[in-house]
Amino acid sequence: MKGILKIAYKLLVNDRGKFAALLVGITFAVFLIVMMTSMFAGILYRSSSTVINIGAKIWVMDPAVNTVANSIPMPDYVLDAVRSINGVKYAVGLYSGGALAKLPNGVYQSVTVIGLDDASLYGRPSLIEGQIEDIFADNAFIVVKDSEFPKLGSPRLGSEFEINDHRCVIVGIAKVTTGGLFGVPTLYTTYNRAIQYIPSTRYTVSYITIEPKSSDAVPYIKQQVKALGYEALTKEEFIRKVSNFYKYQTGLGTNVLLMTVISFVVGLSISGQTFYTFILENLEKFGALKAIGAKGKELVSMILFQAAFTALTGYGLGVGLASLLIAVAKLRLPNYAAKITFENLAFAFVMVLVIAAISSYIGVRKVIKIEPFDIFRG
After folding, report:
1. Is this model's pTM higher than 0.70 or not?
2. Which of 14, 66, 184, 339 counts the most CB atoms within 10 A of its CB?
């Protein structure tokens, strides 16, 4: 068997033109699949940036909430009721809303304002400039330095702007785990200042963040919150809910799926046609092997080996090319959202195996039917 596979390898790589065409087809298909799924994964990751950056273990919200950006305010009594639940170590309210900031040059810029609990500042970001205590000063705001930071004029400590005719002063510049998705800068301030500066409805608590006493208390807390008519989700469940919304209730999931299918079809058509042509051009060699005693299963092993070798080589080249392009894009474009995950790589690997299986099936059918008599008669 080792000798047969060595012959198969030489037959494959000696025809450099056909081998290169096979690699190009599979590499291009893997490249497109990884790029599309990575962009999708990056978008889903950034859509939950507030949940990731705040880091609360349990989030309480209105059951109708689908995304972090579209919160539904809750009455203050819900916060008091949640704090009284057994198993809750502490619970604080969180404000999350949008506003228009008027910059010193007169330009208006949409911003996302996160209002932290005044007493604990639970969920505060890490500062790279300034002191967190300065957030309690008059008109104080902290700005997140991410890809959207320049839209505010790249402010420095002491920079001023206006929100709803209120003077705002930058007292800190922060960094967060992940930037937002919608191209809007993020500001942090205290809860009371946020609801004072930004027009809102009668209820102002966007979310209630909970720190449980232990992980065993989480199911009971969720049950008690549900009895209040609201929904309590762990951090992972909330991220999954947001992801499912973008996957199944928007056109994003459908468009990415369509592009992935197109990538798969392109790779399959190129590699399948090229591999079939390769088999046709080497029929005489397969017939000669069969005439000197090679069994049918050995010829099938040759075909499978050639298809698998080409597929795995193309997979490696495609993943490497996609990873390189994503890395370069992130260096040049800070707001580029692509993210390669193990799920993406596994999905691309399965697609490559399917391409290899279909291509090899086409070749196997042709080789099995070959008769040495027909080859030598020709």
Report:
1. yes
2. 339
